[in-house]
Design brief:
Strand content: 5-15%
Helix content: 40-55%
CATH superfamily of the largest domain: Citrate Synthase, domain 1
Number of helices: 18
Bound molecules: acetyl coenzyme *A
CATH class of the largest domain: Mainly Alpha
Oligomer: single chain
CATH topology of the largest domain: Citrate Synthase, domain 1
């Protein structure tokens, strides 16, 4: 029997349908409620609002569960590869070995970008943040593939845009970094796998040979898997809402990159390292910084702590903490900042303020430490997150489109002035 919910407003009862998900999570469907009652629901920051029904990622923040298309993140991080996970997210099933091989081959054959991109890069000052450069380069592709602007394109053409996007993102990301450090760009080497090719474009120099360390490539692959999707977060919702206006895939993904940039979202990994460096430079007194994070009148927050949906632990943070230890050991790197991070975590987990508010380390708390050990500079951390999140954004955009979802357009409660008459400047 289908469930319903009742809302009583001024003595009048409204019956609303209840939607139940595959894991028995329930939602009151309010889509027709305004038409019936004239009343809207108000939910600042969409803390308790479902914006869609999605079959891509399942997340239970209370239990610390994360699954892509039903597969637990722990198994995927342990056994899969980033390209395989990308295929899974975008097309719904794990690929057969033939499907995976042809997917990888197709991506490899599109890694090169138009030579004009170098001219676009030249136009940026060297101070440009690589996230801004990345989103601009992604948007620029609308000019190179104008047919991708048409809203109702056949499936094969959309698929080609998806392949191009997956193939070119690492090239754009590495070139944004080369721009930053004033080095010539390095072209893709298509004999390398996805992550190794990215590392090659990041770190090779025209005059020197560069060997990709498999430990580094594998660690990067795992990090990208952990970031690959996270259901309706800020950047993904942005991608879906921009895409819902029938803007192109390139435009929607560029918007997602910009949304990810902020320090309360993907920018947190950069903010965590800057915070840890700051604490170290200040003498390493973690207690002092804990006190600042708790003080009501101090805007400082412990970056990498807390999460909108994880109120128990972030399963990705567990995997990453162990990976940080493994990678640092394998590469023989010691990082004093790791000790500060572990000290802060231990203190926070015992501290009433953090315990009461259910604030635990999130995925970004340790990812920056691994990126540093891999030789990735701090300003590139959020770019790495964007590389990882790309298949998730694509999968969500594709799902939104295939379901023919309506344009995203929330309502509001107006709290400004009511109608008043214009007054001439001289009389004000
Ligand atoms: N340090 C100190 N206090 C915190 C922190 C923190 N990192 N996070 C939340 N709080 C406190 C808030 O001050 C608030 O306290 P109050 O109830 O006394 O007012 C309470 O915990 C709830 O915080 P909200 O901001 O309402 O929680 P929300 O769910 O809106 O925010 C967020 C989640 C943005 C992630 C927040 O925890 C935060 O700012 N964390 C630091 C930034 C960060 O690490 N972001 C990365 C998130 S993961 C990702 O995007 C991949």
């Amino acid at each position: 029997m289908s469930q319903t919910a009742q809302i009583i407003i001024n003595g009048k009862t409204f019956e609303l349908p209840v939607t139940v998900g595959s894991a028995d999570e329930e939602a009151i469907d309010i889509s027709k409620f305004r038409g019936q009652s004239g009343v809207i629901t108000l939910d600042r920051g969409f803390k308790n609002t479902g914006s869609c029904e999605s079959a891509i990622t399942f997340l239970n923040g209370e239990k610390g569960i994360l699954r892509y298309r039903g597969y637990p993140i722990e198994q995927l991080a342990d056994k899969s590869t980033f390209l395989e996970v990308s295929y899974l997210l975008i097309y719904g099933e794990l690929p057969t070995s033939t499907e995976l091989e042809s997917f990888a081959k197709e991506i490899t054959s599109h890694t090169l970008v138009n030579e004009d991109i170098k001219k676009i890069l030249d136009g940026f000052p060297s101070l440009a943040h690589p996230m801004g450069v990345l989103s601009s380069l992604v948007t620029s592709q609308t000019a190179y593939y104008p047919q991708s602007l048409l809203p109702n394109r056949p499936e094969e053409e959309i698929n080609l845009s998806i392949i191009r996007l997956l193939a070119k993102m690492p090239t754009f990301a590495a070139w944004a970094y080369k721009k930053k450090i004033g080095h010539p760009v390095i072209y893709p080497n298509n004999s390398l796998d996805y992550c190794s090719n990215f590392l090659h474009m990041m770190f090779a120099l025209p005059a020197d040979s560069y060997e990709v360390d498999p430990v580094v490539a594998n660690a990067l692959d795992k990090l990208l898997i952990l970031h690959a999707d996270h259901e309706q977060n800020c950047s993904t919702s942005t991608v879906r809402i921009v895409g819902s206006s029938q803007a192109s895939l390139w435009a929607s993904i560029a918007a997602g990159i910009n949304a990810l940039w902020g320090p309360l979202h993907g920018g947190a990994n950069q903010a965590v390292i800057e915070m840890l460096e700051g604490i170290k430079a200040d003498g390493g007194d973690t207690k002092k910084w804990m006190a600042k994070a708790k003080a009501k009148d101090d805007p400082f927050r412990l970056m990498g702590f807390g999460h909108r949906v994880y109120k128990n632990f972030d399963p990705r943070a567990r995997i990453i903490k162990k990976a940080a230890d493994d990678v640092l050991n394998q590469l023989g790197v010691t990082d004093p900042v790791l000790d500060i991070a572990k000290g802060l975590e231990e203190e926070a987990l015992r501290d009433d303020y953090f315990v009461e508010r259910k604030l635990y380390p999130n995925v970004d708390f340790y990812s920056g430490i691994i990126y540093r050990a891999l030789g990735i500079p701090t300003e590139m951390f959020t770019v790495m997150f964007a590389l990882g999140r790309l298949p998730g954004w694509i999968a969500q955009w594709k799902e939104m489109r295939e379901k023919g979802e309506p344009i995203g357009r929330p309502r509001q409660i107006y709290v400004g002035e009511n109608e008043r008459d214009y007054v001439d400047t001289a009389k004000r």
